[in-house]
Amino acid sequence: MSAPTRAGDPDGLERIWTPHRMAYVRTAVDDEGCPFCSIPGRPDEEALVVARGEAAYVVLNLHPYNPGHLLVVPYRHVADLTELSPEEAGELMTMTQQALRTVRAVAQPHSFNVGLNLGRSAGGSLSEHLHQHVVPRWTGDANFITVVGGTKTLPQLLEDTRTLLAEAWSRA
Questions:
Q1: Domain span at residue 164?
Q2: β-strand 70-74 against 111-116: which pairing, if any?
Q3: Are 120 and 79 within 8 A, CB to CB?
Q4: Is 69 a catalytic residue?
Q5: What is the CATH number of the domain that holds 80?
Q6: Is 23 within the bounds of a domain?
Q7: Local structure of residue 53 (DSSP, 8 states)
Q8: Using CA atoms, how far apart are residues 103 and 135, in angstroms rounded to an integer?
Q9: Quick check: is 13 in a domain?
Q10: What are phi and psi of 115, to 5 degrees?
Q11: DSSP characters for 117-149?
């Protein structure tokens, strides 16, 4: 067994410092309550809701990694996947599949990242309310402008992206 390393000892890993991500790490439910619980009570255009189901809804991420970054969210405030009823889990997956079809039809991404961050230490900045990420990816979309320039490049306003996706939802 090797000796434990001390802070600052080389470990052979490269580091990319992303201080802008601290806003997500520090996010907590504020005085207004859970944002995912308040979204369904607002108009779709204002809240950036793409589609609504019986047990879940689809909304654009306000802080997207890429254009078309969607969140599939159960209406019920639960933190863990195991807390969903079979009906809720089924609709969450059905809406995720429809999100993939819709984004493919509208934006033709090369790939997707789809997943859940269960718990704050797993990257879930709003870990109190389960939500599944659907992130479209294109070859070469990862760059250093966000880290080096402190800028996120998005080619389209969120409102315009929401309109395109909402209109294509039932056709995809």
A1: 33-141+155-169
A2: unpaired
A3: no
A4: no
A5: 3.30.428.10
A6: no
A7: -
A8: 9
A9: no
A10: 180, 175
A11: --SGGGT-TTTTS--EEEEEE-TT---SHHHHH
3-state secondary structure (DSSP) of residue 47: helix
Could you say which of 69, 129, 131, 133 is catalytic? 131
Q: Which is nearest to 23 in space by CA: 152, 164, 171, 167?
A: 152
pLDDT in single tens digits along all 172 residues of the chain: 555 556 556 666 555 555 555 554 444 444 458 999 999 999 999 999 999 999 999 999 988 888 899 999 999 999 999 999 999 999 999 999 999 999 999 999 999 999 998 888 777 678 899 999 999 998 877 665 555 556 666 677 888 889 999 999 988 7
The DSSP output letter for 60 is E
Is 28 a member of any domain?
Answer: no
In a domain, 16, yes or no: no
Number of structural domains, the chain? 1
Could you give the count of Cα atoms lying within 13 Å of 114 in the half-sphere of its Cβ? 13
Alpha-carbon Rg for the chain, nearest whole angstrom, is 18
CB 97 within 8 A of CB 58: no
